[in-house]
TrEMBL record:
<keyword id="KW-0812">Transmembrane</keyword>
<dbReference type="GO" id="GO:0097347">
    <property type="term" value="C:TAM protein secretion complex"/>
</dbReference>
<dbReference type="InterPro" id="IPR010827">
    <property type="entry name" value="BamA/TamA_POTRA"/>
</dbReference>
<dbReference type="InterPro" id="IPR000184">
    <property type="entry name" value="Bac_surfAg_D15"/>
</dbReference>
<dbReference type="GO" id="GO:0009306">
    <property type="term" value="P:protein secretion"/>
</dbReference>
<feature type="domain" description="POTRA">
    <location>
        <begin position="157"/>
        <end position="228"/>
    </location>
</feature>
<protein>
    <submittedName>
        <fullName>Outer membrane protein assembly factor</fullName>
    </submittedName>
</protein>
<keyword id="KW-0732">Signal</keyword>
<dbReference type="Pfam" id="PF07244">
    <property type="entry name" value="POTRA"/>
</dbReference>
<dbReference type="GO" id="GO:0009279">
    <property type="term" value="C:cell outer membrane"/>
</dbReference>
<keyword id="KW-0998">Cell outer membrane</keyword>
<keyword id="KW-1134">Transmembrane beta strand</keyword>
<keyword id="KW-0472">Membrane</keyword>
<feature type="domain" description="Bacterial surface antigen (D15)">
    <location>
        <begin position="259"/>
        <end position="548"/>
    </location>
</feature>
<dbReference type="Pfam" id="PF01103">
    <property type="entry name" value="Omp85"/>
</dbReference>
<dbReference type="InterPro" id="IPR039910">
    <property type="entry name" value="D15-like"/>
</dbReference>
Amino acid sequence: MQKRLQKAFPTVTVADKAARLDETELAAGLRLRDAMQAYGYYDAKWQVHRETSDKKKYILQFSITLGQPVRVRKIDLQKTGAGSNIPVINGLFNNFPLKDGSILDQINYEEWKGKIIAILNKQGYIKADYTRHEILIDKKALWSEIYLWLNTGPRFRFGNITVHGAEHYPQWFIKRYVSFKPGDWYAPAALAVTQSNLRNADRFSDISVQGDIRAEKNNVVPVNIDLKSMPAQHIKVGAGYSTDIGPNAALIYDNYNAFNEAQHVRVSILAAQLNKNASILYKWPVGKNIGSEYIAQASYQNQTLTAYDSNEILASAGRQWTLRNDNSRNKTRTLEALLNVEQANYTVGDEVNNSFYIYPSLQYTTQNFRNVLRPISGYSLIARVEGASKIWGSSSNFLRFSARATWRVRLSNQWVLGTRAKLGAMWLNGPITLLPPNLRFFAGGQNSLPGYAFQSQGPVDSEGAVEGGRLLAVAGVNVQRFVSKNWAVVAFYDAGNAFNSFSDFKLLDDVGLGFRWYSPVGPIRFDLAHPLVNPQAPAVRIAFSVGFSL
């Protein structure tokens, strides 16, 4: 009972005046009376004691005598309607929280009532209601009677979907963001997911997704989607700092509605201390689901990292399929098939090389988070396989597999446990010097071993210079402690490395502390990591990122 009452009495700050203190004491007494009655104690009595702390703060202490509670002597539960006999409703009715002779706990009673309606609404019974919900109480005789009659009403389905506005976009494309289809059972949650999908598309404003209950006919509810198009073309200029590539500036041009067919063209230029990149990306949506599209892209990248320097020209084309049909941004599953052409020249250690590769790749991606803007419960996985052959004109034959995964679970309101892993394996016909650095395995960096420089760890050549490996295994664990709704502190440990065989595997590990801010645009992450093996300057490295990424 003490824990229950504490929720009704948060700490209140008042001015240092006796009149204000009297008002606070009176208000607290009224809240206490209501709380005691809600838990069935209508005859409770109490005394109030005032104390003054060293900091001149008043503390009101209530000494409560509960008295005899009001007990339940009769429960009349009834249910009618099309959904009255579905298993979950039968189960809840069979486990009504109050029994004959039990104390009248109106908090449990109200929570149970609300749970029933929420379940029915989710399954299409949107007019479910209680035709009678009444508690008769005799305060003197200390008895109560409960009358609760449920009518689920009929079950409704989604009807026709009508889109108003956003005339420059094809109707079929807009309906890709709809998480339901005509004939599905009506669910307000599906309307909310659709509205969220449209908002996150970066194409529409003034978004409204509403079921027109007044226009329902034969238990079918039409849906109206009202949209206003945002300007299709955007230019973004930004500057920032990444621990992996240093200070950077970016210029990005987007056209989200090329040819008025919702085709997306992006041109981006990144100038960073350790990485310079220019790229063009073209996406042509196809099919009924978000993420199903043709892809064509080309890029030039120059990297000057601890272990290597490289210049790469890469062109890719292919198709991506969405494997889920619920069109939710929080839950995705895609398969991407690309044909890649890459020309590179690079210096690793003291060895200068160049290579040319034509290789297909197949990538599977899945994520399932309750909310990608607060990714504190769920998982993600990216697995990729790719390979090349000299028959196609490539510099060597290789088959390469890589995967990275994260998993997080909320242990309580304050605590979150998270794990992550990166794995890689490669078969190569010839020395590793035949591969450009982006196809070799290195460890180090924010999403690998944050206590070590980006792509700086792995097997070494005869001169002792890191040259990258054929295998990769890195894993980490972290614990978050929320200190407020959107802020958390985190402690983490990571271990692993890149290597050529298990016999020459050299374990590296690091520890660190940081914080997370779950902002409206996604999580903002700031970490301090310290390497535990062969620490090099700086002894503490900073890892910083903004937004959610797989």
